[in-house]
Write a structure and sequence with these properties.
The structure holds 2 protein chains of 2 kinds. Chain A is an alpha+beta fold. Chain A has 5 helices and 5 strands, in the order E-E-H-E-E-E-H-H-H-H. Chain A has a 5-stranded mixed beta sheet with strand order 2-1-5-3-4, covered by helices on one side. Chain B is globular, with a radius of gyration of 27 Å. Classes of the chains: A alpha+beta, B alpha+beta.
């Protein structure tokens, strides 16, 4: 754990990789990662909702691991590689998980959707062939008040199938 | 099952129009809005439930570097002299005005360029209170000497609430009465009389995008960007507060991160308006998740039902007395009281009915609309009551319902003749899917099983108006201008499908223009399952109007009928270039007859919401822990415009109600909310889905709905709780009268059973 010392009022200059691009900014020691992504980089995908790391709406991938952006201090990501939902699509082409969410209708209001998509992406990268029980447990930290949960499980299954087919084809 | 009209836009499960923006995270919410020069407001909330404010000292907060201004009601009055608002009563002050009426009420606001500075300065405001005795329980508040409001000031905004009268010395904001036949005489002749009392708990909508609004006042004009379900109402109410004409107030609404009834009427809009007027800069106020619990909730209520029944199981008389805990401000509670009062006797054919429904003020956070306008609470009571009667008479619960069900052509308690209500069909489908007629193993040892069934209905807020504009541009493409707010229910897509069907276009090619009161016409609000029916009809009429204008243009240009010349070609011929518009307008207000003094009306609702549910549970009788092994929700949605989307909506509403049934409960200690965050207030997750979970709509048609459709947003919130309650009672042999159905309450109910009758012994 890096130490801030006693200086909590001086902005820090941090550099990191954001969705494949090298970026830099000044941040205050108390600023959260989700606030910095929203306010400095105008990204909308990670959203603060519960503010307690309980709902998953602010999910951001830091060095390959999904974290709650509302509980992560921005200055600690100096040197890290950050992926947000905005980094998943390649040009006009959506990621397999994004497309599966559309094809199964796995969202209503959409506020929690980026968090779910990042978690599902991580799930399938770690466990390419999860069963329903595994899916439910893995995603239990993401809340959807519209409760598109059954459709989200379908989306994960569909994305897993398509990834397998892509893998076989390659 | 799917009613599909082939080759058209109706009955097609197209993707949401905004699907790509939602999966890429680019979709627009007010949550993200920042304007140049914008200040952030943070709200100081009262920490006492009922008190006079002796003094507020803001000097220390105002001295914090970065704080722009600290605002109290005295400042608000300089820009809004009468700072009280509300859809039913003008009872809610923009900030506490000399008195606080619930713990959590806004008292002051810190404005700063940075929300963290504002947050920090809040702690430096000191408020001196003189505490007053408080009243929290709705039944106690009916007769309590503690009076929440000295005088009641009714608004007269909506015709269905126009009869509210100013009163003094009471906490009863509104009482609704319905009388049909002669219940007291009928009770005399009944073979059996049953009476039960039920209670429901306070819960909150918790949309994932918390309440947020931005006001930008300058040069005598105001623009509000707000996560609101009712932009037209916001404009009318803000214009009234300011004494301005409506055309100086502009209300814009992009997508909402959930609403569920929370974001109706005025929430933060009056506050941000006053703040922006005061500082002449844009101001944003965004609630935290914790603060949401202080803005609006679902009414807890106490419901007493009494029924007279014949020996062979016909219900001949019923009285319902319902007391709604409205909290400190009425919000739309009076409409909840009325609308849920209308159907409180249940979907049964009963000749003698009396309903008394009371909206009551208490020192709790305000209660309003939440996915059902009170109908889920009353359904909990009448369906559990129905079961308890059937069991007492030794009649099968399903057969007892069939014997008494209201059928099309028969008068409902209000006298309105039932029409297009597939009550039998939904009930039978739910029964079939749970194998009601098969033998069922209830178990004998520690683990017991039970199954339950329920059927329910609701009336729809009326009379209300929707206006739509179809604008066909010079190239023939279409913009659809509606005030309906897409908060996740998919209204953009469904309304585009209806427009496309009438215009003979592809729905995906239609651009839906989001609510902007400078641009989009009036709509009463996105609420109460009304948009598909009301706005859908307005859209169909607007598209028909456009078609008629295209035909008139063709005649004007001497084009022979049926020559199929595309619109862009007609416009090119008329204007000599790609130019001009065809503008079709449609406006819809359903038929309505104002109820008489006994609540009797020939047209009390534009249509009926109809649904049934069935459940199976497995209970550990040692601990009270239970599992819902099967949950079935069946709805009558008329013709499904977009089957996949409507099933997801039915399922989503059911899961939400599952939370209200099993875990969600706002807990108070002496008026203080003790679990107001998602850490302690548990909403459903993926792990809470029932093992077997089926959601379906049945084949039906709403004759006067747009392409046969009716609303569907609330219908699966009605029968679910009593179906689970029914299953639990079936498993353990005891009834739980109160929601939520926690393992602890199951355990207590088991303990209360006489020892020799205990299951598991």
């Amino acid at each position: 754990m890096r130490s801030l010392g006693n200086d909590v009022t001086t902005p820090r200059f941090i550099k990191f990789t954001l969705n494949g691009r090298a970026v830099a900014t000044h941040v205050m020691p108390h600023e959260s990662l989700v606030d910095v992504l929203t306010e400095r980089f105008d990204l909308r995908g990670a959203r603060e909702s519960c503010g307690q790391g309980l709902c998953g709406c602010c999910t951001v991938v830091v060095n390959g691991k999904a974290v709650s952006g509302c509980l992560s201090l921005a200055w600690l990501i100096d040197g890290a590689t950050i992926t947000t939902v905005e980094g998943l699509a390649t040009g006009a082409s959506l990621s397999v998980v994004q497309q599966a969410f559309i094809d199964t209708g796995a969202f209503q209001c959409g506020f929690c959707t980026p968090g779910f998509i990042l978690m599902v992406t991580q799930l399938l990268e770690t466990y390419p062939d999860p069963d329903d029980e595994h899916i439910r447990h893995y995603l239990a930290g993401n809340l959807c008040r519209c409760s598109a949960y059954p459709e989200i499980v379908q989306a994960v299954r569909l994305a897993a199938d398509r990834r397998k087919k892509e893998w076989v084809a390659s | 099952m799917t009613t599909l009209i082939s080759g058209t836009n109706i009955g097609r499960s197209i993707d949401r129009l905004e699907a790509r923006d939602k999966v890429t995270g680019r979709v627009e919410y007010v949550h993200h809005l920042r304007l140049p020069g914008m200040l952030y407001g943070k709200i100081l909330r009262a920490n006492v439930p009922h008190a006079r404010i002796k003094s507020i000292d803001v000097s220390a907060a105002a001295a914090v570097p970065g704080v722009y201004r600290v605002v109290t009601i005295d400042d608000i009055r300089t820009v809004i002299p009468h700072p009280y608002y509300g859809p039913a009563f003008h009872d809610q002050p923009i900030l506490a005005d000399g008195k606080v009426r619930f713990a959590g009420e806004p008292v002051a606001v810190v404005l700063a360029e940075n929300k963290r500075v504002a947050d920090e300065a809040l702690g430096l405001i000191s408020v001196e209170y003189e505490e007053l005795p408080a009243v929290y329980d709705e039944v106690e508040a009916m007769t309590s000497p503690v009076i929440v409001h000295d005088e009641l000031r009714p608004a007269s905004t909506f015709p269905d609430l126009a009869h509210l009268k100013g009163r003094r010395g009471t906490n009863v904001a509104l009482d609704y009465h319905l009388l049909r036949g002669d219940p007291s005489a009928a009770f005399q002749t009944a073979d059996h009389v049953f009476e039960h009392t039920f209670h429901t708990q306070p819960v909150m909508h918790t949309p994932m995008e918390p309440f947020v609004a931005v006001a930008d006042a300058s040069d005598g004009r105001l623009t509000l960007h707000t996560a609101s379900q009712g932009p037209s109402f916001v404009r009318i109410e803000i214009a009234r507060l300011l004494g301005w004409p409506e055309n100086r107030v502009r209300v814009k609404v992009p997508f909402l991160g959930g609403g569920f009834g929370a974001k109706l009427y005025i929430k933060l809009e009056a506050l941000v308006t006053a703040l922006s007027l005061l500082v002449e800069r844009p101001v944003k106020v965004a609630c935290t998740m914790e603060e949401q619990f202080f803005v609006v909730t679902r009414h807890p209520c106490t419901i007493a039902i009494k029924s007279g029944v014949t020996r062979d199981g016909r219900i001949v008389a019923r009285t319902c007395n319902i007391v709604w805990n409205g909290g400190a401000y009425a919000d739309i509670g009076p409409r909840v009281t009325q609308k849920a009062g209308l159907t409180a006797a249940g979907p049964y054919d009963i000749d003698n009915v009396e309903i008394n429904s009371y909206a009551v003020y208490t020192n709790r956070p305000p209660a309003g609309a939440l996915r059902g306008f009170g109908a889920p609470q009353t359904a909990w009571a009448y369906e559990r009551h129905t079961d308890m009667i059937a069991n007492a008479l030794g009649i099968d619960r399903l057969a007892f319902r069939h014997k008494n069900l209201l059928r099309d052509g028969r008068p409902q308690a209000s006298g309105t003749i039932m029409q297009d209500t597939a009550l039998d069909t939904v009930l039978d489908r739910a029964a079939a899917l749970i194998d009601w007629n098969q033998a069922f193993d209830r178990g004998t040892g520690r683990i017991r099983r039970g199954r339950g069934i329920a059927v329910s209905f609701k009336g729809i807020t009326t009379p209300t108006t929707s206006v739509a504009i179809v604008n066909l541009y010079g190239d023939g493409s279409c913009g659809l201008y509606v005030g309906t707010v897409d908060m996740g229910q998919g209204s953009d897509t469904v309304l585009a499908q209806i427009a496309a069907e009438t215009l003979n276009m592809d729905a995906a090619s239609i651009r839906v223009i989001h609510p902007d009161t400078d641009v989009t016409p009036y709509d009463m609000g996105t609420l109460g399952s009304r948009s598909t029916f009301h706005m859908g009809t307005a859209v169909r009429l607007a598209a028909e109007d456009a078609n008629a204008k295209i035909a008139a243009l063709a005649r004007e240009l001497n084009v022979p009928p049926n020559s199929n010349i595309p619109l862009q070609e007609l416009l090119r011929r008329k204007y000599g270039m790609q130019a001009g518009n065809i503008i079709g307008v449609g406006s819809f207000i359903p038929g309505y007859e104002k109820p008489d003094a006994n609540g009797q009306s020939r047209k009390a609702t534009p249509f009926w919401g109809v649904g049934a549910a069935a459940a199976e549970v497995e209970v550990d009788t040692e601990t009270g822990q239970y599992t819902i092994t099967k949950l079935i929700n069946i709805a009558d949605v008329g013709v499904a415009i977009n089957p996949r989307m409507v099933v997801a909506q039915l399922s989503g509403a059911a899961i939400m109600q599952l939370g209200f049934t099993t875990t969600e409960d706002m807990l108070f200690h002496e008026g203080q909310l003790t679990n107001g965050s998602l850490a302690d207030y548990k909403i459903p997750t993926l792990l809470d889905l029932p093992q077997k979970f089926i959601n379906e709509f049945i084949a039906s048609r709403q004759q006067d709905g747009p392409y046969g459709a009716k609303g569907a947003g609330e219908v699966t919130t009605l029968a679910l709780s009593p179906a689970i309650g029914s299953a639990l009672a079936d498993a353990i042999g005891a009834n739980l009268p109160n929601l939520p159905l926690t393992p602890e309450s199951v355990f207590q109910a088991l303990k209360a059973i006489p020892q020799n009758a205990q299951p598991g012994e």
